[in-house]
Amino acid sequence: MVFHFREQFPQLNVYWEKYLPYMQRREVPAKTTLLKEGQVSQSYIFVEKGCVRAYFDKDGSEKTVQFFFENSGFSSFDSFVNEVPSLFTIETIEPSVIYLLSRVYVLQLIGELSHEPSFVHIILGISAARHKRYSDELVSFIRDTPEERYQRLLAERPHIVRRVAQHYIASYLGVSAVHLSRIKSKLAKGKAHF
C-alpha cells in the first residue's frame, strides 16, 4: 500500500514515509500460504516481486479467483475490513518478495488520511477500478464461453498466460487443464469460434 501510493501520490508522502518502518519484508518461495481460507486477514499485502493467487477449495478442487503481480496491493478485503473468516486462501505461485502491513497500522494510516480530500478521491478511484474489473470478470464468466474468456485473457492480461502455470489458468477460467489445452490447440489452428 505505502509503496505504490508513494510513487503515485507523492503529495501524501509525509504519511507514507511514516508507515514504511512498519512494513515487514518477506522473501518467500513458491507455494507459500500467506492467508488460509477461514482465517481472519490481519495484513495488507504488497507484492514487490513475484506472483500471488487467491483461491478457494470446492470439494477438494482449487478454484482460482485472482492473480496479483508486482506493484499490486491487496488483502482478503471483506475479512480484513470486517474481521470475518476469509473466503480465500492467498498463496505465492512464484518465489516472491512481499511486504505486509498490519491491520492496526493500516487503520491508523487511514484514520490520519481520512481528512485529506485527495486521499478519499484516490481510494474511491482505486475501489471503482477494482470493482469494475471484478464486475467485468463476473459478467464474462456468466455470459462468455470458456474460449471467449481465454481469448479475452490473452488480449487484456497476457502476462498471466506468460507467467502462470496452465492448471492455475484453467482453474481461473472455470475449466479443466485438458479443456484449456483443447482451447489453446483450437486457437493455434485458427478453429476457435467466438
From TrEMBL:
PROSITE patterns for this protein: CNMP_BINDING_3
Domain Cyclic nucleotide-binding: 23-111
Transmembrane segments: none
Signal peptide residue numbers: none
The organism's place on the tree of life at top rank: Bacteria
Pfam families: cNMP_binding
UniProt protein name: Crp/Fnr family transcriptional regulator
Species this chain originates from: Dyadobacter sp. 676
Record lineage: Bacteria, Pseudomonadati, Bacteroidota, Cytophagia, Cytophagales
